[in-house]
Amino acid sequence: MIITEQKSGEDLFALLGSARRVVLLGCSECATICKTGGTEQLLEFEKKLKTRGLEVSARCVLNPACNAQVVKKALKGIREELAGADAIVSFSCGDGTQTVAKLVGQMEHTFHIPVYPGNDTLFLGETTRAGEYVEACRACGRCELGWTGGICPVTCCAKGLLNGPCGGAKGRQCEVNADEECVWLRICDRLAAIGQLDNLLEIRPPRDYLKNVHPRRHVLESRRSADRLKEARAKEGQDAK
Ligand code: SF4
Ligand code: SF4
């Protein structure tokens, strides 16, 4: 899940500047679970805006905000409300907000409206209990969990070591982040428990940072096949003329 935290009211009012009419967008997925972009949070922010004399011309929880087709349809559905808006605030993750901003910038009736992030995007994480999240994955592009007993050293070791431990742990605590147990000790324990301690005898090569060049793009093979078919049909059509 993508973990987000709502920006402070002051930060948001600073972004809104002199805007008077505002559209609020949320997201039905991660931001709703994190309580940063569901209906309840949009209503709460609407109340704050009203106390400062601002008007909310539309409120919509996108399902979800990172799906361009969904966002496009939703923006068309609130076309009239968007016409007089001075700003849009997107209470989703940075991905959702960029999806909204890109489409708003492309559509004739909205291209002049600024889109502001309502949330700060923190990390990809796991829910440990209601309202508590811990970072779990940096989306590094080459998953190492297969030989580490399912524990991520890239994310959970303060130095991101692939050949740990560094030797600096104090007791079982990390020398850099004393709040956390040294992840390499956890990895050793887990590998011992599943009979795979020998995995540590192999020296791992440095991570391939070419797999982590941004922005990354991923296209499914089914999408490529569909595109190839479309191109072939278009070519056949041209040849027939
Ligand atoms: S190695 Fe860690 S950061 Fe990389 S994909 Fe696997 S879980 Fe994510
Ligand atoms: S003490 Fe453990 S978790 Fe901390 S930096 Fe060293 S190897 Fe990584």
What does this structure look like?
This protein is an alpha/beta fold. The protein folds into two domains: 2-123, Response regulator (Rossmann fold, 3-Layer(aba) Sandwich); 141-212, no CATH class. It has helices at 9-16, 30-33, 39-51, 68-77, 79-83, 94-106, 153-156, 183-193, 221-240; strands at residues 2-6, 21-27, 55-62, 87-91, 115-117, 119-129, 132-137. It has a four-stranded parallel sheet, sandwiched between helices. A three-stranded antiparallel sheet has the order 1-6-7. The protein is flat. It starts with a strand and ends with a helix. One iron/sulfur cluster binds at residues 157-159, 161, 164-166, 168-169, 174-176, 182-184.
Could you give a short description of this structure?
The protein is of the alpha/beta class. Helix content is 37%, strand content 19%.
Q: Give the CATH superfamily of the largest domain.
A: Response regulator
CATH architecture level-2 label of the largest domain: 3-Layer(aba) Sandwich
CATH topology of the largest domain: Rossmann fold
Strand content: 15-25%
Give the % helix.
25-40%
Distance between the termini: 51 Å
Bound molecules: iron/sulfur cluster
How many domains comprise the coordinates? 2
Q: What's the helix count? A: 9
Order of helices and strands: EHEHHEHHEHEEEHHH
- Sheet with the most strands? 4 strands, parallel
Return the CATH class of the largest domain: Alpha Beta
How large is the radius of gyration?
A: 23 Å
Please outline the helices and strands:
Elements: E1 2-6, H1 9-16, E2 21-27, H2 30-33, H3 39-51, E3 55-62, H4 68-77, H5 79-83, E4 87-91, H6 94-106, E5 115-117, E6 119-129, E7 132-137, H7 153-156, H8 183-193, H9 221-240
Helix pairs in contact: 4-6
The chain binds iron/sulfur cluster (2 copies).
